[in-house]
Each structure stands twice: as C-alpha cells, then as structure tokens.
Structure to design on (325 residues):
C-alpha cells in the first residue's frame, strides 16, 4: 500500500526519512516504518496500472513476499486496497516450484543434491525448526531455494512465530520456545535427523547493542544446556556451529582500537564479522572414538558431508569433503 497508494509518513527524500526515524526512535534500517517520498503535489512515483515493476533484490525469502503481493490475486495475508495491473519481474525466479515470480531477468541456478534431498531419498526422517526470523534458512534456503518438502511423510517443519518488537528490547527472542518444541520433538522418537537455528546472535548482533547481545548469546547457551542432556539421553550427537560472526564484535575498530563517535560513545558495529566460527562435534555415544577431525582448513560447505558421514551415508560427488574420518 505504500508503493501503490502512497500511504505512509511523507518526507522529501529517503535520506531525510532515515535520519528522522533514527533520531526519533533509534531504529536501524531493517526496522524503519514505511515512508513515502513526496513533493508539493503529493507522493512521488506511485505504482499505477500499466507500469513495469522490477524488483532487483536477489535474496529469495524476502523477495517472495513482495512478489506475491503484486502477482497473486488470491493473496489474503494483508488488505491490498488496490492491485494494479503491472508487468512485474524479479531479478531471479525466487521459487521455481511455486513459479514466483512468473517473470524474471536472470535464469536462477539449478540446485540439486541438497542434503535434505539426499536424506529424503534414503528414507531418513527430518525435523527443521526455527523462529520466523530464521525459518527460511532451515527450509527454503536449505532445500536449494525451494519452499516445499522433498517427502511430506519424512519431513516436519516447525515455525515459532517471532516477536514483532526491536530485537534489542527482547534479546532472548523465541529461543526458549524453539528449545521446548525441539526437545518435545526429539523425545517423540520420530526423527533421525534434526536441524535448528537460533536467531539471537545474528539478529541482536545487528542492533549494535552490546548489553542485548550478551543476553542473546547467554540465552542460546542456556538453551544448549537443556538440549544437550536430552541428546545424551537419546543416544544422539550434535554439530554446533554458525555460518558467520556478528555478536563477537559489537564495536568498530581501527588498528585494534575501538572507534568512538563524536559523543564519546563507542561506534556500534552492526555488520557480520569475518572471524572464524567454531564447529563443535558433541558426542558422548559409543561411536565417539570411531572418527576424528581431519587436519586442514574447513568451512560451512564441509558440514553436510560430515553430517551424512555420521549417518553412514555416501555424500554426492559434487559435495566438499567431510571434516571427519
């Protein structure tokens, strides 16, 4: 409705809007309320019938939402007061299974032999669980930019609805609820493989609030202290890792020293870091002594082969090697 009807607080420029909201509320870019660029004649650039709309973001989970808003006549998740007849195109087709969007500029890469696909082919029951902020990471992205499941009978997806508040105000997020659902599911005995994502370190890290980030990380520690004994009880093992850093550096630095703003406060760092992240193989089973971590430098692309090795499966030829042997 902001793009089509021009609804929202009006500003003369995007710069003015961002600076005003930052001063008034302290919010960062991702939390900005909708706003409209306007002049003396009203909103500038409203979308009308006959217009062409090109959405040039290439990240699929967020692009799917606005693509459906312009293309799906049956969408009812919010009140579209008016749906203009436009030629809408995405940079990519974000979901080939659902054909979203129907028009796109660049042919998306074909992604085959994902871990979820391999497990489904081998009849392994899978659980994917996360709160809304990271639900797409354990489903859509995990499956190679596919929203659906490979096998409905073998896969269960659980989404815990995220709070709609700034993350620094509730840094524990939904970690406890994710943990509750995970433990209940593990104890059910239905699943041989589970993947879970805790959003706290990343989402709260982006706020630049050090005190909140501490709480976020301690919250995940507390959740792990509940999960790992259950895994021991069930005779399982866990791989604990991350795909990047964030909460590990909350201040900007230069030549090893903290950078300060004009007001004398440390300059917050809200971006991902480039630091190596740990990868922990937690295993108190009788199999613990039957494998070891190889020497060498490894990364996120080695996790899948390591996990299927522990499940006694052969990795596809195109995967990077396992970290363990």
């Amino acid at each position: 409705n902001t793009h089509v009807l021009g609804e929202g607080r009006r500003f003369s420029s995007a710069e003015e809007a961002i600076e005003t909201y930052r001063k008034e509320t302290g919010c960062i870019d991702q939390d900005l309320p909708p706003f409209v660029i306007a002049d003396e004649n009203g909103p500038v650039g409203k979308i009308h019938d006959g217009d062409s709309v090109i959405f040039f973001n290439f990240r699929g989970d967020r692009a799917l939402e606005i693509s459906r808003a312009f293309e799906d006549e049956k969408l009812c998740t919010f009140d579209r007061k008016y749906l203009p007849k436009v030629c809408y195109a995405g940079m990519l087709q974000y979901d080939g299974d659902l054909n979203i969007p129907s028009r796109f500029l660049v042919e998306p890469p074909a992604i085959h032999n994902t871990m979820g696909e391999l497990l489904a082919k081998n009849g392994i029951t899978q659980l994917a669980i996360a709160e809304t902020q990271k639900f797409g990471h354990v489903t859509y992205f995990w499956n190679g930019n596919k929203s659906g499941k490979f096998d409905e009978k073998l896969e269960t997806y659980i989404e815990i609805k995220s709070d709609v508040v700034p993350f620094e105000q509730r840094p524990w997020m939904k970690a406890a609820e994710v943990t509750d659902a995970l433990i209940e599911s593990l104890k059910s005995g239905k699943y041989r493989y589970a993947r879970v994502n805790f959003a706290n370190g990343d989402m709260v890290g982006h706020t630049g609030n050090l005190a909140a980030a501490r709480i976020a990380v301690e919250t995940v520690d507390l959740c792990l202290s509940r999960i790992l004994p259950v895994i021991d009880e069930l005779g399982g093992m866990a791989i604990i890792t991350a795909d990047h850093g964030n909460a590990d550096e909350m201040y900007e630095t230069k030549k090893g020293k903290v950078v300060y703003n004009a007001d004398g406060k440390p300059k917050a760092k809200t971006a991902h870091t480039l630091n190596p992240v740990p990868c922990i193989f937690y295993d108190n089973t009788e199999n613990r002594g039957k494998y070891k971590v190889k020497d060498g430098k490894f990364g996120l692309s080695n996790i899948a082969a390591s996990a299927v090795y522990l499940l006694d499966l052969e990795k596809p030829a195109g995967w990077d090697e396992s970290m363990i042997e």
In short: The longest helix spans residues 210-234.
